[in-house]
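PT: before anyone asks, these are the final sequences, not the draft ones from last week. 676 residues across everything. Please model them as a single complex and drop the result in this thread when it's through.
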Amino acid sequence: MSWGKIFSIYTGAFIGFTILLAIAEQLGMPRPAIAWAFLVVTIGVYALIGILSRTAKPDQYYVAGRGVPSFFNGMATGADWMSAASFISMGGALYATGYDGLAYVSGWTGGYVLLAVFLAPYLRKFGAYTIPDFLGERYGGNAARVVGIIMAIGASFTYLIAQVTGVGIIMGRFLFMPFNVGVFVGLAGILVCSMLGGMRAVTWTQVAQYIILILAYLTPIVAMSTKHFGVPIPELMYGQAMAEITRIERDLGVPKLWVDLKPGDMLNWFGLCFCMMVGTAGLPHILMRYYTTPSVKQARSSVGWSLFFIFLLYFSAPAYAAFAKWTVLTDVIGKKVTELPGWIYRWGDNILGKPTNSLGLFDIVDKNNDGVLQLTDFVIKSTDFVVLATPEIAGLPFVITGLVMAGGLAAALSTADGLLLTISNALSHDLYYKIINPNASIVRRLTTARILLVVAAVAGAYVATFRINIIVAVVAYAFALAGSGFFPALVMGIFWKRANKQGAIAGMIAGFLTALVLLVLGRNWGIYILGVREISAGLFGVPVGFIVIWLVSLMYPPPDQKTQDLVESVRYPKGTTLKLAGVD
Amino acid sequence: MARPVEIDAKTREAYWRETSRLTWWIVFWWAVSWVGPLVLHYQLNKIVVFGFPLSFWFAGQGSLAIFIVLIVYYAVRMNQIDTKYGVQEDHV
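LR: through. Structure below.
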């Protein structure tokens, strides 16, 4: 049976399962039971794929045997890429910021163009297992490899903690599970997918997870669009909601319109967008997905599929924001406190002095006691309510809220799996096998890889239980650091034969440190260069990385003939590349 | 082992020149597609189509669609260039 057929049947079965639960709900199935059914069945399916994909071959474990067709690699990349934050929080972030937040939407998609033309096909032709692998071979030796290992783990580990935290929060909000319990349930869900089958298992689980997350994301807003405008295309119809928002905002005299840029913030919007783009093209858990396609040709088209599948979610996110904003402005603000819509009571914490939930999303107060809600009476604690409450705002049964939970979980778990694999592969393949013990047997290498995978996962979950606030900020910073540290060295390694070891190491460290110093200065002391906020530190780090590689390379002799031949061979799809030790 | 020599130097050079040229054109249009609507933010946002102020629409949808088109165009053109210079993959 072909992959296409298997996943068509899977999609049909999942929709059927959702419909069954919807019928069960009408017959009186309690809400917690529905949420549990989604949790158990989806994680069960991921576990099953994980077990069926178990392998004892290194090329299967590290790069899925380089047999993932471009279409499915695109889907897997979509799930790998879209995290708990993209799924649960982005709609809400846009609700709060309007046009200013779109820098993320453009940035997290535009980076794929850079990936397509500068990196993906060449990395595929190079045909290694990891990103530090490329740095080590191209820049002759362990120094570049070690810098690569440190940066790959640094960027991926903070990101991993954020995903595990996301799982804990989702479990708490839907299943009322204590945070620390939720974190370790999530951990189990992550490990069953990746431990036995490595990249092969993670790839096919991610495809399954993508299907669930995109169905879950689109269903509520399609219903919303149909309910209000009679057309089931929210991406087309949210313009109507925006026109209303602008009209109401003008009536209320809001100083900055939702659809407008914050005055004087053009350079920051540019910097943020640029930083997210370059960061996207520098994150190792995304780059390594392009090692898994069967050919260079398919690596090229796979970037297109990746972006298409990501686009489906990202171009819908503003629709969530616009519909929710419009609903709040028309159904909540200006209404009497006695006629609040039902979703307020389901998701709000403190409603007019009465403790109702403890979800940490919003409160309703009547500050001047006039019995009517003003703009400031709707007190938002977390804009996550936008995505979470939309199914009920659209008048859908609880089963769709359960579906959204399953989607958010799929987004968090799939990203966590990709990150975990990046971390443990950097340790097991690059550090252990390539540097510490090059004579290790295949069995020993894979055993080490699996042990490190479990260690990294447990460490991630353990750190997540401390709920350190800084983590969320650090994830955004990971883009600045990955973009400034990795991107210049990777691109120069392919496009400039003259780039050498000294240049690359100096450039990686200089780019990374520039971004790091600006992050610390901005975060702790509010010191900004040209008014560029710390989150966009890559605006300076990336050019510094390129310039330092260029200057320092020129100060030292060109790389040897073998390295120059390697660069040549990477540029042409035809022929074989350098045979790497222990890489099939 | 590395065997780039199986393609003669002249062909390689011409291939890489054409590839580089395409690469920079793609990067140029990529930059235009998102920096353009940003720089012209205030002018474009005055134009409202179907409820969407245009600068907002680009940042949320239009630029994204252009990104996909650019990647697809790049993939198609590169395959043509590969064949033209005879450097396409042997198998698959």
